[in-house]
Design goal:
With about 250 residues, this protein is an alpha/beta fold. The chain has a single domain (about 15-250), classed as Ribonuclease Z/Hydroxyacylglutathione hydrolase-like (Metallo-beta-lactamase, Chain A, 4-Layer Sandwich). The protein has 9 helices and 15 strands. Helix 8 (about 210-220) packs across helix 9 (about 240-250). The protein is globular, with a radius of gyration of 17 Å. The chain binds zinc ion. The site of zinc ion has 4 residues, from loops.
Length: about 250
């Protein structure tokens, strides 16, 4: 059982990247250690960055972006889906080095100030093994440029009708989802499965039924045309039907 757990943990720590065409935009996803950073190509020299990985991966992420033809200077906005170390830890690096404005949900501002997580609710064995390390993992958060209380349009950075940000308070109280074209970036509202294309419950979630209600709301009200969902872990994209199956399934 322990060997199996270690195998699963190591399978998730590989560094990789994927390119997904998500009409009408191309999404390049870099996976470092445990977390996805998504780069949405809005136009040739205009990119949206969603999550920044951990602080100790920031320099290699910077190099990987350049190696894949994405100049960090082209990133117009960095949206943090939430304030955990593996999503927000690298944000200060990109903000300071490239003056990229950073967006965070109002409920997670305190996580950037305190530089670590609030108490976590593990949903399975892997999370129970990782809980202490994830809770205590410290980082220096960025000073956010934009704090989201309700929905936020991306018009001022990318032009009319490109996308919007909305609050999905489940994994953390300030968690955000980002809708761009037919894609929805969900952070840790749910995650991809390690070995299949399914959606599944994130490692940490205090109110799983509450998270599923928010997913249903995205599917039916807030992003009814969404076809692809990009989670913070695994994926890198999950088809709508898989998300519908997950949201309908037992808690
Ligand atoms: Zn998280």
């Amino acid at each position: 059982m322990i060997l199996l757990a270690l195998g699963v943990l190591c399978a998730s720590c590989a560094s990789s990247f994927d390119v997904t065409v998500s009409n009408p935009f191309e999404v390049t996803t870099f996976r470092k250690s445990y977390a996805n950073t998504h780069l949405v190509k809005i136009s040739e020299d205009k990119y949206l960055m969603i999550d920044a990985g951990s602080a100790d991966n920031a320099e290699t992420l910077d190099a990987d972006l350049r190696n894949h033809g994405i100049k960090p200077e082209w990133i117009r906005l960095l949206i943090l889906t939430h304030g955990h170390w593996d999503h927000a830890g690298g944000a200060a690096y990109f903000q300071e080095r490239y003056k990229i404005p950073v967006v965070i949900g109002s409920g997670d501002q305190n996580l950037l100030v305190q530089g670590h997580s609030d108490p976590l609710c593990p949903t399975g064995m892997i999370a129970r093994l990782r809980q202490s390390g994830d809770f205590h993992r410290a980082f220096t958060g960025p000073k956010p440029d934009v704090v989201v209380n309700q929905d936020l349009s991306l018009d001022q950075w990318f032009g009319p009708g490109i996308g919007r940000v909305m609050s999905v308070p489940a994994h953390t109280t300030g968690s955000l989802a980002v809708i761009v074209g037919n894609a929805v970036f969900v952070g840790d509202l749910f995650r991809g499965a390690m070995l299949t294309t399914e959606a599944t419950t994130h490692f940490y979630m205090c109110d799983v039924p509450g998270a599923k209600r928010l997913i249903q709301e995205l599917l039916t009200v807030k992003a009814p045309a969404a076809e692809l969902f990009f989670p913070g872990h695994f994926g890198p994209s999950i088809a709508r039907r898989e998300v519908e199956d997950y949201a309908r399934g037992p808690h």
